[in-house]
Design brief:
Blueprint lengths: L1 E6 L8 H15 L3 E5 L13 H4 L4 E3 L12 E4 L3 E10 L10 E9 L5 E8 L7 H25 L3 E6 L11 H8 L3 E2 L18 E2 L5 E3 L8 E6 L5 E7 L3 H6 L5 E6 L1
Parallel strand pairs: 1-2, 7-8
Antiparallel strand pairs: 1-14, 2-4, 3-4, 5-6, 6-7, 8-12, 9-12, 10-11, 13-14
Helix pairs in contact: 3-4
């Protein structure tokens, strides 16, 4: 099984449709079973000539497509390998910006084996003005982990949680959200996978000429995007990688994070 996770927006004038087709190209190359996204903006990324949910058709279906008009953190799944057992979505309580800081969750059954696993896509609060912002990220983690524990109790399955936690020392946001995920029993897949990397995930969006062509980019400077495993003894984590080739750098200011695992 392959997971593809990416915060797909980024503050840039480069057209969304152009970047969406680059994401589709990476998806076609990797053929992931699950795609998790953040900042999949309902008013930008889900409309126009290349709406994200349609770019992924026909191979991928969305969990709770009826929430597309408000869900910034969707999960898409490959319909020929996975069956959706149960799914849900909720915006975080407390500090939030237009409900964009949220959780989508799903329980999937692998068609080939009948084995089940849980998946979470999330985006934590972003500001770093004072301790209340760090506390909000802790509460985001607690809300997500409460559902993960319910999922484990109900199905006795492994759970993977991924997304943009807005947790980094370099940005001044502190590691509060990340640290709370660990405190709640989540394990960082970067350090569990048999094959892994130290590559960072966030970069300044590349410079372009007037025709939108790639000119240059700066090296990645921190990590905001993470993958966690819960009930990890029930899953084999084969590899963890961060894509940082030209197409990946052009698609967003967040590089895709790729995890290969076996149930």
């Amino acid at each position: 099984m392959i997971l593809y996770n990416q915060n797909i927006w980024g503050n840039t004038d480069n057209p969304v449709g152009n970047r969406h087709t680059k994401i589709r190209g990476m998806v076609d190359e990797l053929v992931p079973d699950v795609i998790c996204m953040q900042e999949c903006n309902p008013w930008l990324s889900r409309v126009g000539d290349f709406p994200m949910q349609e770019v992924l058709l026909p191979e991928y279906l969305e969990v709770l497509p009826e929430k597309a008009g408000e869900n910034f953190t969707p999960i898409f799944y490959r319909k020929d390998t996975l069956e959706l057992v149960e799914g849900g979505w909720f915006p975080f309580e407390g500090k939030n910006d237009e409900g964009s800081k949220s959780v989508t969750w799903a329980v999937f059954k692998e068609k080939a084996t009948g084995k089940k696993f849980g998946m979470f896509s999330t985006h934590f609060w972003f500001m770093a003005k004072d301790e209340t912002d760090a506390q909000q990220r802790r509460e985001n983690a607690q809300a997500l982990c409460a559902v993960a524990k319910q999922m484990k109790d109900k199905y006795n399955i492994p759970v993977i949680a991924t997304g943009d936690l807005n947790s980094a020392v370099e940005t001044g946001q502190t590691m509060a959200g990340y640290e709370e995920m660990i405190a709640q029993g989540m394990k960082d897949v970067r350090y569990l996978a048999k094959e892994t990397t130290e590559k960072l995930t966030l970069h300044v969006y590349p410079k372009h000429d007037g025709n939108g062509n790639f000119i240059s980019y700066e090296e990645n400077y921190c990590t905001l995007d993470y993958v966690f495993a819960y009930n990890e003894d029930m899953i084999e984590l084969e590899s963890f990688d961060v894509l940082d080739h030209e197409e990946a750098m052009l698609s967003s200011d967040h590089c895709p994070v790729i995890v290969e695992f076996n149930l």
